[in-house]
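Justification of computing resources. Each target in the renewal requires a structure prediction run like the one illustrated here; the chain below, 154 residues long, is used simply to show the kind of job we budget for.
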Amino acid sequence: MTPADAPPAARVPPGVDLFDPRVYAEGVPYGDLARLRAEHPVAWHPEPELLGWPAGLGFWAVTRHADVERVSKTPALFSARLGATQLRDPNPEDLPFVREMMLNMDPPEHSRLRAIVNRGFTPRTILAREEVLWRLARETVDGVAPKGECDFAV
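Resulting structure tokens:
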């Protein structure tokens, strides 16, 4: 289904905005996400011109676990590779490079790499590296603290 084919019931309802970063300044919009899960679990979300960025093509907001699993296992219908997964669509000339990132790959390439990477993130592996991870975290924070501010992605 393309966005143009999406019936009104498959569109994000008025008042729900998962796109505008200012929404998240108040925290994660849990109420809106719960509403989407209950009423519109797979919904088309527009990307209007915003904060100096041009309008984008839009995206599907998939909010239920079972649907996320289906999307993940059906790359012929839901491809991460075609347009990539960044918040903003990459420039067409950048797309070949962006597609080399694991997040922007579809199976079987994504599955093959994930199998390799997952071994490094088991609970046993993380516990074995806990001391090193804490040291790296302290060094990172100590290096940023004198600047007085920074952005962290969690």
